[in-house]
Amino acid sequence: MSKLLLGLKPYKIGVAFILVLTLFRVLAELYLPTIMADIVDNGIVQDNRTLMLQLGGVMILVAAFGTICACISSYYSAKVGSSFAKDLREKMFYKVESFGIEEANSVGISSLINRTTNDISQVQQVTMMILRMVVLAPLMCIGGIVMAVSKNAKLSLIFVVAIPVLALIIYVVIKQGIPLFKVMQSKLDNLNGVLRENLTGVRVIRSFNKEGFEQKRFRNANEDLTNTALRVNKIMAITMPIMMIVLNLSTVAIIWFGAIQVDQGNLQVGDIMAFVQYGMQIMFSLMMVSMIFVMMPRASASADRINEILENSQVMMDKETDRQMPSRGEIEFRNVSFSYPSAEKPVIKNLTFRMRPRMTTAIIGGTGSGKSTILHLIARFYDVNNGEILVDGINIKEYAHGDLRSLIGYVPQKAVLFTGTIADNIRFGKEDATEKEILEVLEISQSKEFVDGLDQGIYSEISQGGTNLSGGQKQRLSIARALVRKPHIYLFDDSFSALDYRTDANLRKALKNEITDANVVIVAQRVSTIKDADAIIVLDEGNIAGIGTHEHLLTSCSVYQEIVKSQGVVEETV
Fold first, then answer.
1. Is 169 helix (H, G, I), strand (E, B) or coil?
2. Which of 16, 309, 372, 448 could crosslink 442 through cysteines, CB 3.0-4.6 Å?
3. 348-399 residue pLDDT tens
């Protein structure tokens, strides 16, 4: 938690202002019981109404001053706390954006969302509470003790018993609460994960009639979280009643023993009333401290989870370089091997090949043969385990991520669109793309016909995830987004699978005419999509089974022959 609070440095002026206001507030509240004692002893007892009115006016002014200080300090505490939380959310977002896929998967998407929202909210609440109370409570407690002792040192011995009891309660709450709060945040991650899977997989769940199973799974996760929360709340629930009992017993003791001293003539009535007020201020200040410590365990658990992300050392370190950008886009694999985290065996093994500019290189193979993995490695979503990947003779690790990816137009296997208009999504590839450029790439990607059919054309809205478009439409818009970028390297990851054969053929023809200088890499399942490629790489269980043209592989590669044979009926009808 202390590491995160260092982030308050930009707001040190605001924090200092809050502390000054808090000091004035404490002085005002400590002065009020003394004024009240003077009103009772010198005004009411002596029937001096003039003095009563004078001191009453002073009391009102002091109370008003303390209230104004409290209101202003609360306002600035909320402002600083909210700004601090905003900064934390930005840091978390930027950090997560820099993660590789491996790092994001190791933490979990639902956990990352929970840490960026719920955990930061917990820290924000405690930060505001600390700014309001961390100085107020100690000053009030110390000031109250000093003023009480100045009134009557003997009667102040009551606090020698009460304060340790309250301190013991706070200690027990902290010791019992911190572990449970950490567990509760973990269970909240689990609940969010179940909910996220249900929302993203709702079609699959309904198609298999698994609503009951998913309801049971959610109910179990929900009950698990609820049971942990109940255990925590039971601890917190008994805290306040016990503290109120201590406070009330202390007040009774002050009145009881104070009355004895008044009877003996050692203490005035006004002094005992002031003493009761100082006693309540001391107790309430300790209760404020307890509130901070009650909130701190959960905030501490949240802070640890936030720091875990912010202090995560990236697996794929980025380069800061002024290296001149390559102009050709030639790709070379040299003895590259790679396995996913926790995988039993490598996905690809000792691959060596070259993909040249002004050529189309296709990759084909069975499921799990490593086709998409090759594209992920080129884009450096993962780092290779062995060997190296070169772009224009330079290891891709030598390039900054942004520089490398600015060379690439990547079309993922699963088309991803964002909330906004069609034009917004195309401009995701090139921010300053003109309307003319957008229309051109829509024409090439075979998207113009269906876009023109929409009421607002390229300014038609796309819902979240592109749910108001078909799979083929989303795929074509994803291709248009890559085309508008005019990169040196195109990576098509099975990006034609949702297209019918006619659209597929027209699209490939348009791409061939448009892309002349770039290096085009296509991963595909259908032979018809890649048979005109300049070179075809055939993968078999992570190994290269053959490299060549369609005609060459038909006579020399048994794996390719099997693939063509399995699609023979389809190929004949094209």
1. helix
2. 448
3. 999 999 999 989 999 998 888 889 999 999 988 888 989 999 998 899 988 8
Q: Please report the DSSP string for 210-278 in residue order.
A: -HHHHHHHHHHHHHHHHHHHHHHHHHHHHHHHHHHHHHHHHHHHHHHHHHHHHHTTSS-HHHHHHHHHH
pLDDT in tens, 55-112: 889 989 999 999 999 999 889 988 998 888 898 888 888 888 777 676 777 777 777 8
Question: In sequence order, which ranges of 39-157 are alpha helices (DSSP H)?
Answer: 49-98, 101-107, 109-114, 120-133, 136-151
List b or e across 80-109, with b for residues whose CB sees 16 or more CB atoms inside 10 angstroms. bbebbbeebbebbeebbeebbeebeeebbe
- Residue 340 is encoded by which pair of tokens? 């996913």
Hey, which residues does 395 pair with through a beta bridge? Answer: 390
All structural domains of the chain, each given as residue ranges with its CATH number in brackets, are 2-178+234-310 (1.20.1560.10), 331-573 (3.40.50.300)
Three-class DSSP category at 537: strand
Burial of 166 (0-12, 13-18, 19+ CB in 10 A): buried
Three-state DSSP at 532 gives: coil
Q: Which amino acid is at 528?
A: S
| Pairing verdict, β 519-523 and 535-540 | unpaired
Quick one: which H or E segment has residue 10? none
Sign of dihedral through CA atoms 535, 539, 542, 545? negative
Residue 265, by phi and psi: left (phi above 0), alpha (psi -120 to 50) or beta?
A: left
Nearest to 137, CA basis, from 172, 155, 174, 163: 163
Q: What are the respective helix, strand and coil percentages of the chain, to the nearest 5?
A: 65, 10, 25
- φ, ψ (nearest 5 deg) of residue 225: -65, -40
Question: What is the rounded CA–CA span in Å between residue 415 and residue 479?
Answer: 9
